[in-house]
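Reading is simple: each integer encodes one residue's backbone shape. The lines below illustrate:
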Amino acid sequence: ITSADVDNGSLDACGIASITLNITTFNCDNVGENIVTLTVTDINGNIASADAVVSVEDVIAPVVRTQDLSLELDVNGEVSILASEIDNGSSDSCGIEGLSVTPSSFTCANVGTNTVTLTVVDVNGNVQTKDAIVTISDNIEPTVLVNDISVVLEDGIATITPEDINNDSFDNCGISSLSLDITSFDCSSIGDNTVVFTVEDSNGNSVSSEANVIVIGEIPTVEISSFTTVNTQSENTIYLGYGPSEVTLSPVVSGGTGFVYDWKSSTGEVVENIENPTIRPIESTTYTVTVTNSNGCSATASLDVCVKDVRSFDSKGRFKGKVLVCHHAGPNGKQFVISISKNAVASHLNNHGDSLGNCDSQCVGTDASSSMLSKAHHDEEEAMKPTVSIVPNPTNNKAIVRLNTATAGEIQIYEISGKMLFNEYATDLSSGVEFKIARLKGGNYLVKIITENGVYTSVIVKTK
């Protein structure tokens, strides 16, 4: 300031020589009221002074400079900032009294960009503000905790949900979804199964972990037992005209409980869906059973049943009870077909090693598969192989031992220890040799028949 700024009309009778002011310059330290002294000197050297008040004001707002900021939420889903982190060199002519920022704290709800305001106040109360951008991100992955579980198959299926595997997994900003790579299991899954459990939070962070799912159940096994309708003849064969015309099938099943049986036949024959159905085939048929247990798991087995027509018809095509038999006779084993009464069949089958039907008989049925026919032929070939027959057996008195082939040979009977008890030679083993064993102790005794074509063995069971 100058003295003229303070002088308010000072005067002198003879005239003023000078007017001076003791303070003419002020700064921020002088904000407020300042007492200054105005001195007036007249032309004759007379001096007079008076005080005045100079009020200094600071009305210039601070210069605010900001910077944008990027921050990550902590494990609690929170983060705070200071005004100094937003300030980028704000200034004021008289000095800054304080800085503040609003808002200064953030949560998961603030993920993304947020506008904050930096407020600068100078020492004289002047205020200025400016905005900045604070970007909040959540980079903390969820914490995944899993349960290993067991499930039981029902109707062949077991299903699970992600909640079954979840064991209180958590995240700082909350979980948005749970998922599993496998949720459904069947009979092929019985045992341990590894599943991948994935947790994703609300901000796209995801983590996966493995868990074990034990699928409980059993896979059944099944086979249909073979049967013989006529002793010494082929297995799984029904002979039209001789022996039983119906058979009860017997599946052997394991692996579970509560079995349900579903039977099918290749010829369309209706078979009852029970464990042991009775069949009455009139042509060769394949019987198939599907067994399902209480877990809903299944297994399948099949049995080929050969049907042979061994009825002997008279010249008018009438069946009067006689049966065709392939007779194995003579020292050279010639075969020829004979027609005999039913009452004589057993003797021929047991004593001569004969077989039912024509010597080249095949399974009946145009729909029979080639595999069934092959099996039937194989069974016939097996029946024609030399085999030992002992009648009766078991016995407590005597037994007739024979070979189903008209050939010569020696019959020997041994104790199990190896001691020979009997030794007989026969020119026609198919006729049989009788042994009296009443004096022997109860137990098993080895029978050995020795021919030029081989050695054949069996066992006599002696009852007490």
Remarks:
- The CA atoms of residues 3 and 21 lie 5 Å apart.
- DSSP finds five helices and 34 strands in the chain.
- Residues 366-381 have pLDDT under 50 and may be disordered.
